[in-house]
Amino acid sequence: MTTDAPNPTSVVVADDQPVVLAGLAAMIDSALDLAVVATASDGEALLSEVARHRPDVAVVDVRMPRLDGIGATRRICREYPDTHVLILTTFDLDEYVYDALLAGASGFLLKDVTAPRLIEAVRMIADGSMLLGPTATRRLVHEVAARSATAPHPGMNDLSDREREVLLAVARGLSNAEIAAELTVSENTVKTHISQVLRKLDARSRVQLVIAAYDHGLVR
Question: Which residues carry this modification: 4-aspartylphosphate (predicted)?
Fold first, then answer.
């Protein structure tokens, strides 16, 4: 496992197909700044490895035995909030993907992803960004609306004007760097604002911030 970087981003990978699991781990480990610290073949094993290593990122197959990716994501986001979850799926229209995103995952990728794209995605997720295209965002919002499952967000009234600006930028899909450039502030300042918005809205990921913004009528 690669450990050449001074402080590599730690990653746990979970998939129930041995060949796929080995391939994903090898692709991620090929990057000098990433290190696969453990792998797992089911959801329960994944939780054990996350508890043991407290990785920066968990790359999780949405469908696994014993405990599926949705249940595992929900547990990880609740019990280990510093670990960001990247969901893997065979079909981008998989309804389970949206359940996982609602549970707190930061984004998703198809399993046929190339090595450069996977590495880029892990880096983005580790940095606190979300990996969710416009089509997926629209489908996610429609899914939430159809289920009427989104609770009110009383914390929205507690946001400062700048925090609301940052929330809107996140809902538009901007990265931390893009938000910083648009608001003429540093990326660290953006990260601080996002942390405050997450806390005030009791959200676990940027995806949930997008849902909150749409659900509150700030974005249409």
Answer: 61
Q: Rounded CA gap, 16 and 62, in Å? A: 10
Quote the tokens at residue 40. Answer: 């797992």
Around Cβ 161, how many Cβ atoms within 10 Å?
7
CA–CA gap between residue 162 and residue 83 (Å, rounded)? 26
Label the pairing between strands 9-14 and 34-40. parallel
Distance CA 220, CA 214 (A): 6
Ranked by mean pLDDT, the top range of 89-93, 153-157, 176-180, 182-186 is 182-186
Contact 109, 118 (CB under 8 A): yes
Distance in angstroms (rounded) separating the CA atoms of residues 186 and 32: 26
Residue 99: which of 54, 144, 45 has the closest Cα? 144
- Give residue-wise pLDDT tens across range 126-163: 988 877 655 566 666 666 656 545 555 678 889 999 99
Angle value at C-alpha 47, between 101 and 91, nearest 5 degrees: 35
Task: Note the pLDDT of residue 134.
Answer: 55
The residue written with tokens 């996977």 in the block is 118
Residues paired with 59 in a beta bridge: 13, 86
pLDDT tens for 207-220 read 888 878 877 777 66
